[in-house]
Amino acid sequence: MKKSPLAILFLTVLLDLIGFGIVLPLLPTYAKDLGASPLMIGFIAATYSGMQFLFSPIWGRLSDFIGRRPVMLVSIFMAAVSYLFFAHASTIPLLILARALSGIGSANIAAAQAYITDVTDSKSRSTAMGMLGAAFGIGFIIGPLIGGFLKHNFGIEMVGYVASALIALDFILAVFFLTESNKDAQKISHFLKISLARTGKPILTSMQEKSAAYFKGISNALSHKPIALLMSANFIFTFGIINMQIAAILLWKEYFMATDQQIGYLFAYVGFISVVVQGGLIGKLNKRFGEHKLFLLGHIITFVGVFFIPFIPPTTLFTLGLGILLFFSIGTSLVNPINISLISLYSYTQKQGQIMGYGQSVNSLARILGPFSGSILYGMIPSMPFVVAGVLMLVGTIISLSLFKYDIEALEPEPESSTDPQTAE
């Protein structure tokens, strides 16, 4: 494994996720202060995920052609600007705009995942994906603590400024130290020349061609049974977790009477366990058990970590509740990076970025629908989002079992479509 480029990638992603973690736990409360209803809070969360859904395959596909580095630089810059908008989002429409821009910028995770596939082999890929997952965990340890401190002492504007400054630092580091990993990438000038040559086509025709190419790409990817199963598991797992995410914050506040600061501690606790698992243990566990067994085990453990949350006594949040969250942290820390790793291992070798983009789009679609589901179910019966999440973990367990009959091997090169830019000359 080439450690140096992975170390730089880890640092840039980490700074980006700390900025994300600073804002995320404060978003529901801030939106409510602006007059947002619970359903509107869900819509604001869905706006962020909606932009991820739309732009993840775009960033991933672009990274296949022009390289990972320029895609990440542009998207990181956009994320930094989005938090400046957040600092001045004094109305709900401005807050929605800020979250939309942030979602577009954060959709670069597909390019980051493809970067990892460029610089790792099949044996070390799960470990590298675990490092990326550990960055999420650290972001959720440091970010919420910083965000709570800044909001309490300096106001929401400072929260946005600090998040923007961190991601601006991320951008500077990427400019000077992040090298290009995709050696087959075209020069940007070559890509632009091809793109400009096609602008003479009617806009409607161009849009139809792009839509057809996009859905054909999804169809080709899903025609391979293991990828279809993994994409389904990705959607089901993410939907189940996001379905209970907003509900958990409301439950902790209304049933367990937790303060915002205590909720921040819970986020940090989950993040810490995630760092331990994804940053250190997952590589050793993968060598011992393999991806398929860990994927199955992760779903079973996560079931315990989501289903029992609303059924513990209200005075046991920081005793028995921490034990339940331990299962949640371990399970999610196993499932997410293993899912990504398996998708990459089963993918066409020359279309890693594109298929990673599809996977991120599936993930983002679940993140669009999850907040609405969680809000509606919580309004009906507070325990319902957690019961639904538990049932979905069991469905994911069944899918995990079905993957055992497929050997792990990358697909042979797929013939390029005539809609690809490099064949459109």
TrEMBL record:
Keyword Transmembrane: yes
An example molecular function term from Gene Ontology annotations: transmembrane transporter activity
One cellular component (GO) term of this entry: membrane
A Pfam family: MFS_1
Subcellular localization, as worded in the UniProt entry: Membrane
Record key words, sorted: Membrane, Transmembrane, Transmembrane helix, Transport
Residue ranges of the TM segments: 7-27, 39-59, 71-90, 128-146, 158-178, 227-251, 263-282, 294-312, 318-343, 387-404
Residues covered by the Major facilitator superfamily (MFS) profile domain: 5-408
Primary subcellular site in the record, as a coarse category: membrane
Membrane topology: Multi-pass membrane protein
Domain of life, per lineage: Bacteria
Protein name, UniProt field: Major facilitator superfamily MFS_1
